[in-house]
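tmp note - Sulfurtransferase
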Amino acid sequence: MAHVIDVPALGAALAGDRPVRLLDVRWRLDLPEGRPAYLAAHIPGAVYVDLERDLSRAGHPEEGRYPLPSLTDLQHAARRWGVDDGDLVVAYDDNDAVAASRAWWLLRRRGLDVRVLDGGIRAWIAYGLPVEIGDHGSRPGNVRLVDADPGIATIDDAARAPSSGVLLDVRAPEHYRGQAAGVDPAAGHIPGAVNLPTIAHIGRDGMLRSPDEIRGIIRSIGVDVDRDIVLYCGVGIASAHSALAFAEAGIDTRVYAGAWSQWSRSRGRPVAVGRTPSGALRGW
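out:
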């Protein structure tokens, strides 16, 4: 099953008979409010999806910074976006598909045919295609989401993963090594985690690398793709992009959505620092 769609294929789909629902999921940590950019220019017909309100929920800090929404809330959001049963859903953003992948990951196993637009709105504009300004409202949709696990790993699953399978930390190396101070109370990585930054799967043109390239990158760090693979990042967003890359390469994964933001706030969870999976252990 395809998980990514390019601009020509999207254009063909929009010209076809099957309804297409476009989701504009612009968000990033340093600019979480993407609505102004959406209002300034978006793909015609796209609705704005607020990652922090629609694809997350308010929670306690111990749950991580962006806890997952309930199935009921996610279905209400999808209907508000105008999604009907049988629609092709295409999510995009302006940040290498990192935020759009969160929508893809939450929706893909719940009965929707959902893709991520490779290159996002930048690729759309590069093709010289038109954009729309202002807001776009949609009539409520009738979609019914399936009560299925999108591929969640718990904090205990993440702790066991290095011995029972593979645990991949997809953050930048300086965060993995504990060299970058952030907003979390501890710096470093989960003991036993191997570092494979999600940016490794993105080409210089902002497009997702080919399945063969992704498989080559995974093999280069010695990951056994036949084992259970758990991914985590800083706040539970970028790991969904790595899940997308692995899925394009035909490899299934689970995402520890609580991420480092939960682990580092959980007393008794050890922290490793340095370049190696075990590193120098610190109590927490």
